[in-house]
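Internal QA ticket QA-208
Title: Verify multi-chain structure generation after dependency bump
Assignee: T.L.

Test input:
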Amino acid sequence: MNAPAISAEELSKAYQVKVRDPGLGGAVRALLRPRYREVRAVQDVTFRMERGEIVAFLGPNGAGKTTTLKMLTGLLYPTAGRAQVAGFTPWGGGPAFKRRIALVLGNRQQLAWDLPAEETFRLNRAIYDIAEGDYKARLTELVDLLDLGTVVDKPVRQLSLGERMKCELAAALLHRPDILFLDEPTLGLDVTAQEAIRRFLRAYRDRYGATILLTSHYMQDVTALASRVLIINRGRLLYDGGLDALIARIAHTKRLELVLSSHVTRDQLAGFGTVLELDFPNAVLEVPREHAAATSARLLAAITVADLSITDPPIEEIIQRAFALGGAEPVERTA
Amino acid sequence: MRAWLTRWGRRYGALMRNAWLVDLQYRAAIVLWVLWGVVEPAVALGIWWAIARAGPVGGYDRTDFARYFFALTLVNQLTLAWDSWYLDRWIREGELNFRLARPLHPAHEAVADNLAYKARTGAILLVVWLLVALVWPTVRLPVAPARWALTALAVVIAAAMRFFISFTTGLLAFWTTRATSIMELHAGLSLFLAGRIAPLALLPPAVASAAGYFWFPYMLAFPVDVLTGAAHGTATIVHGFVGQLVWLGLWIGMWWVAWRRGIKRYGAVGG
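Actual output:
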């Protein structure tokens, strides 16, 4: 059996945070007798990823996603637990490990602000010992895939957010890493730029078999890229598995989206399920998942509809419900 | 060996190139930095020049003072290190993150940045010194290749010492938010104990003697004295170099310990 690209076993990280009471008295007391509180940012997180997988790491702000990413890239030393990334223990991996990975953090950029992105690319060429021929070929490929032709020679400070993120990705991938850690890679980008990044990541994975672990607040990133999601809240892993399985587990309802051919009242529709929306000709009903098919048949027999589709609740809603589990339940694994 | 040298030569070349490219974006800042480096010794020289009007002070006449402060200006710029301010920001604001993710210790970027700054500023100050020496013979130094070679060695060791002092102090940001304040305290002490406002020979004997127990004289006053010829005789020169090497070794040791322990405490703030 092949070793996994990434494995984490009971990975934990706790911080000591200084606490003080408000006001001058609190400040003086904190000076004379400092008090500390332990904050458990990540608790006993266990999962593994196979080569070529794209996994989305989801959780509300402060859930422990980025801390886990930073431990897996060797930036942070864990308080407890073990991890292996590309066969290395990340926090002792050294240069050989760092050549295998790429880390892109949403708001901490490696591009030199005052220089064209091309200068950072050249610097990375030297740092990663990339041969001139390989460098040129890879740069041409990245410029092409990310559509950076007119961008790389402009000072970074003059680029749009989307252009900067694309350049960040190019800088992080010049050494052709096989494991990518991406923290909010589409944060703040417009829809077109988000889609370009997603297309690129899919193409990069398909071409080089790369393993990608990404955090994102955009559900489109998750649905378009990830075959699997990890849901974390308050430092604990709540769910590890496919999106479909998560929907089946969390979403106990289905939605019937109707395009009506004639007017009906809200009361008439209420006989079939909970009316979420009625704005002629459109209507949305929520019905128990197991009754969706039968209710649809009854609806079609009773009311004239031009179109009817059965959908799951929006993924955002499902993820929110999963967050709300809040660590009360043990991790659910469906993978 | 050759491949190793080529690899590191290319890395340092790229890091220094980027440092110079950034400098070129801030040309006015370069002029201000050079002026900042010149003003303090120029003011000190002005004061001692006036005091020495009536005759030598502590064995220093006007010519000695002029040579001392010209040498001090050059040596100070060639050994200056401001890495504690960078480290403090990298650690507190999470800018260390991407540097830790690269297969290159962040100290190399700091060393290359120092080399780039020193090459540029040192060249400017040397030209200025030569131009001044053309019209003001007082600041001409004798052609003495052996002395210049010893000066070069003392300057290299002093620069390494000041780099490790600054870097190590910056690493205190792993533990405290006041790392730069500690460095400012160090700069304040070095005004007196390293010979920045007066040659150490003019300090009260107790202070000069106390300074000798610390690294301060070895990071600035000693290379200046080698350049001006105030430090002469084998015993004095050997004592100076031994002091430099001992303190350099100790600071490298402290840097190593601070890095190894600090990195385990790193909070990697920021996305």
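Spot checks passed. Chain B has a mean pLDDT of 92.
Status: verified.
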